[in-house]
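sry for the spam today, last one i promise. struct tokens for design, 125 residues
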């Protein structure tokens, strides 16, 4: 039986944050006050993992999971991830550990300016 998981992440700060969807490597901006809902379905036993730092939120899918990123305010589709990550994670490692090892903590890049979660709706401020 497949597992389902979802999480909503919000930027409660005063400056934009990056939202990284791993292990896919997709990165988006979350402007102050914006939120995103990440939903995933995949093999039993998996769940989303969220890692927050001062300027970044990382959401990790589990092996084989597919999913979507939705605008947290409108539920409008921002990005679809229809292909699950293959089971290439070394035994004993989590997806988080594997991605950090592969990136060696130096490959964190910023999202292009047009990759904003709120890009599909008008700003009221």
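last one done:
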């Amino acid at each position: 039986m497949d597992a389902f998981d979802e999480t909503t992440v919000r930027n409660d700060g005063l400056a934009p944050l990056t939202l990284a969807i791993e292990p896919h490597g997709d990165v988006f901006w979350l402007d102050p006050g914006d939120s995103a809902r990440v939903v995933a379905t995949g093999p039993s036993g998996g769940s989303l993992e969220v890692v927050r730092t001062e300027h970044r939120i990382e959401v990790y899918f589990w092996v084989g999971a597919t999913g979507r990123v939705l605008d947290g305010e409108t539920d409008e589709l921002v990005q679809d991830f229809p292909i699950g990550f293959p089971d290439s994670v070394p035994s004993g490692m989590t997806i988080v550990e594997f991605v950090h090892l592969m990136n060696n903590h130096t490959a964190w890049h910023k999202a292009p300016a047009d990759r904003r979660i709120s890009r599909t709706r008008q700003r009221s401020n």
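The mean pLDDT is 82. ok im logging off now
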